[in-house]
């Protein structure tokens, strides 16, 4: 290319950038003077900036949420590993310590792997929504709009759908992160974290029972609001509840050193076991899904 033309193009580009920069700096003064063009350009810039901030904020909130629960999982595994090490030094290689310690650590490491995977998948989906937000929205609306014929077919297939609940549930487990395996893994991690760390038990069984039922009420509302299929979410909640109660009895006796007479009485709700059930279920229901 001719050097003179290159110099002219460079000069024109520099002049354009300088003019744009100067005009942007002068926008506040022009707006105060009532310049219609300046007001229009400023409004467009403001809306564009607001749109970008909104997109970035939604992305940051998702990443912050995933990061917080990744830290919670890591902290629970840290407490478990530390307690496991202390027990080994204090009592040696007993069968009880090895079985529960190794099992807890392995489940914890698997939970960290799931948390990291969920973090990256959440980041990928967030970037996808930022890049293809309008396309995704139109697709979602298209899926939500159903013709009368489709609704009629769905009504006819209700019985078949109920009979195939088990298969549908298994399919959901494969396709989505919000599955029973993840729920149970995080439930185990949460309970091990409670029994392996300094935990304040309820002051009395009555208060512990009250908090327990309040949590269950809140958990049902949470499942209703977050699960796309409330039936599957409720099934997850019920299984997590029974599994959590059973696990709290096992860990409470073998890992927490609580007497069986206390565990199988009303005094159970005054121990750290009920805290473990509530915490484990809370972590599992939140972390078990996207």
Largest sheet: none
Shape: elongated
Integer average pLDDT: 75
Low-confidence stretches: 1-11, 136-148, 171-177
Strand portion: under 5%
Proportion of residues in helical segments: over 70%
Count of distinct strands: 0
State the domain count. 1
The rounded Rg comes to 28 Å
| SSE succession | HHHHHHHHHHH
| Number of helical regions | 11
Report the span from N to C terminus: 55 Å
Task: Report the structural category.
Answer: mainly alpha
What does this 3D model show about the protein?
This protein has about 290 residues and is mainly α. It has helices at about 5-30, 35-90, 95-145, 150-155, 160-165, 165-175, 180-195, 205-225, 230-255, 260-265, 270-285. The protein has one domain (about 20-135, about 170-285). It contains eleven helices and no strands. The longest helix has about 55 residues, at about 35-90.
Characteristics of this structure?
290 residues, mainly alpha, 11 helices, 84% helix, elongated
Summarize the structure.
This protein is mostly helical and 290 residues long. The protein has 11 helices and no strands. The chain has one domain (20-134, 170-287).
